[in-house]
Amino acid sequence: MIDKLKKLIAFYEEVLSLPHRTEIARELREEEDVFLLLLFSEMVGIPNPTYYYTLELYPYMIEKFHDWHLRMGMEKSPLSGIRCC
Amino acid sequence: MSAIVVALLGFVVFFLGYRYYAKFIAEKIYKLDPNYVTPAHQYNDGVDFVPTNKFVLWGHHFTSVAGAAPILGPAIALYWGWLPAFLWVILGTVFAAGVHDFGTLVLSVRHKGQSVGTIADRLIGRSGKLLFLFIILILVLMVNAVFAWVIANLFISFPSSVFPVLLQIPLAIMIGYMVYKRKTKMLVPSLVVLAIMYIAAIASAQFEFLQIDLVKYMGGEEGDGLFGLGAVSTAFFIWIVFLMIYSYFASTLPVWKLLQPRDFINSHQLVVGLTILYLGLFFTNPELTAPVVNENPDRSWLPLLFITVACGAISGFHGLVSSGTSAKQLDKETDARFVGYFGAVGEGLLALISILTVATFFANTDAFFSTYASYNDANASGLNTFVEGASVLAGGIGIPSTVAVTIVSIIVVSFAATTLDTSVRLMRYIISELGTEYKIPTLSKTHVATSIAVLSSAALVLLPEGPRGFGSGGYLIWPLFGTSNQLLAGISLMLISIWLKRLGRNYAFTLIPMIFLIFMTMYAMFEQVFFQWAAWGTNTNMLLFVLGAIIFVFALWIAMTAFRMLTKKYDDPIDQNKAM
């Protein structure tokens, strides 16, 4: 009985949090996108004095970059500097 | 006649509709495939496209489509007696709304989760998309203007509801902060806020000093207000300005700060409201005192009934929600029947309780006719009658009448405010989109678009003298709400029918409600535009005439497009797994 009640409450909470979770995920994604742009701004023609250092993050960012260009509707990487796929 | 019998009858029809008709539609017409890879899986990005449990998705879908409109429409439509309103809500939900909401969901799932607007763009060209934008723009403008008046009216009529509603704003901001920054769960805090609001409601119902009664502060209804306006008009002015400023912030702040936490506090109110009303109904077993059919109405029910009960039976807005968000989160295609069709049934249940609440409120039929003396009277008093009727039902489960009135008015204000927030935000998006479409980049800027949305709504509310006095300017174009909303539903049904035809399926089940809707919309518009609002009409109104005529031309154009597309011969049925 208590288990069922807990399940019901969990379900109710999930209904409640569904749109909220989406919204938070969207805001976080936008922050990530800006971060990505800051890191790789040199590749799109924006001068970046710290490019030498940010480039070191390249191996860690490559998967996220791949997800980004797929999400933007580009099947292949649009930047010649990054060949992720 | 006992209201319980009518409620049970409604439940049975809804059950049969879902159990048999929706099953038939799912299997034979939409041919749902459990193995189809839905957009939620295909484009899973963890944000918009996320496979979601069907019960959770239903809950989300239902709370998104349920608002003040399914309460308001049926409460007014009771003017023609409870039977016509009941029949249209029941049959409209089963044969039109269910098929429509379910269909837009399936159509969108089979088109990469795109919205009906985008699908219309592809099926009937760019003009289809602009038509969509135009109709939605008119709809949201009306909603902004009228809901601002509705809330201001409830604040003036039930001053005890002001304090709890205002209290909700800082508490919602606090919850938003806790959930977003501190990562706490949201259920318990939002329930605590709801409890605080209801305690505040009980307190303000008991203690007069907690009631923010602007009219009383200015010396009662006969008192003097500001700028040469009377006390009531000044109260309207102050509340509407307050609501417009609030809407500006609500629609520009990041959603997690105010809108989302407010929405999840309000979503409990839907559960609370429906539970109180249906329990009250079953405990008190009231008799229906409204007439079965009003035999001498001053306005004919045909076609007005189908326009008045907008969201209670079928609504174009549901298609926007179905194809906008729900379709992107559908886990399995077979879940569409539960989410879409049963979502419409949920809305039908809300409309049904609205009918029963008002129909059981009056002591006898004569009392009903003294309030519902004419169609205009029904329009003016429908919502307040619902609030008072609901407090009687709530009394059935032991809630004192003054507290019940306050709580019910808070629920209605909350629904209306949620709609207002969303609709101002929606208007901002549309203005931005039009800016992009017509290459005016300034319009795409957040504060420019929001200012235009808020100022145009405020101007519509305050500048013209509306049919219900100062501040009700929105009601000048409100007669267009039902028709444009139904027209939107008609377009969606048309898109589904064209798609079904191209798949080589039987499309009669979406075509018949489409013809019915477009016919009723055009009939109502023709009658109103050319016999009432025109220069030679009975109730000349140039604003309504021009806007109504534009919408009428659109309706005609849609009917012709539908005819052309549906009579066209398609030699090669499209592959249903291939998006158009």
Automatic annotation (TrEMBL), chain A:
InterPro entries: CC_star_Cory, DUF7990
One Pfam family this sequence matches: DUF7990
Protein name: DNA helicase
Source organism: Fervidibacillus albus
UniProtKB/TrEMBL annotation, chain B:
GO biological process terms on file: cellular response to starvation
Domain of life, source organism: Bacteria
Membrane topology, record value: Multi-pass membrane protein
Keyword Membrane in record: yes
Keyword entries, A-Z: Cell membrane, Membrane, Transmembrane, Transmembrane helix
Annotated CstA N-terminal domain residues: 3-361, 378-524
Keyword Transmembrane (UniProt): yes
Gene Ontology cellular component terms for the protein in this record: plasma membrane
Cellular compartment(s): Cell membrane
Transmembrane intervals: 6-22, 62-80, 86-109, 130-156, 162-180, 187-207, 227-249, 270-288, 300-321, 341-363, 397-420, 446-463, 475-500, 507-526, 542-563
InterPro entries named among the record's database cross-references: CstA (IPR051605), CstA_N (IPR003706)
PANTHER family for this protein: INNER MEMBRANE PEPTIDE TRANSPORTER, PEPTIDE TRANSPORTER CSTA
UniProt record similarity statement: Belongs to the peptide transporter carbon starvation (CstA) (TC 2.A.114) family.
The protein's name: Carbon starvation protein A
